[in-house]
Write a structure and sequence with these properties.
- By secondary structure, the protein is mainly α.
- The protein is rod-shaped and about 140 Å long.
Length: 232
Amino acid sequence: MARSATAATLLALGAEAAQLGIQRGFLAQSMQPDVVANTLLKVEDEWTQQAVAFAECNATAADERTSDCSDSVSAFEKSCGMVVSAVVKASSGDRAVVSEYMSDICAESVLKGWRQEHCHSLAQNLVDTMTPDSYDNRENLDTVAFCHRFWSRFASSEQARAAREAEEKKEEELKLAAQKKAEEEAAAKKKAEEEEAAKKKAEEEAEKQEAEKQKAEEEAEKQKAAEEKQKA
């Protein structure tokens, strides 16, 4: 329900813009790229979850050989189809308008990093699939086939990104562990040096006190001897 509602929001925006008689120069006002970008952000998050679920399902299926992993693909293709249909309908099938409009959406600040990459990927794949004939695009664009192909690219991209992030996380953890170890070794070294310095100081103090004691005893002996000599 949530996936359909989110994609339906984009579809509704596209339908509204189409009724306004969209032209290239009118895109930013009638189709509100910032609004659609926020909606696309949610859609991409759902697509990402579907890609993750698909990868996890495949990993389980490889072991158990019983899992059916088609649910994630079906959910993605349904949502993707609604998004693509909305964009094509709103642009009246004009490939140049789609290119400009999607460029505006992908440039919105809410779409950063991998989200922006996916936006550009969706835009480029859609534009490459459309023909110069607007009528043909409106009537004959096979969104099912498009989304099926795009799923393969999207899922592969997400798997690569997940692997890259896992590796970066591992490297960061190793870096932090090495840093912690270095800090602990430095602290241990400092403590050992302080203990050694304190020990040396204590020994020197003890030697000093012993020397003073011995000197005092020697002086006392001399004083005693002098007094005895004087009495004699």
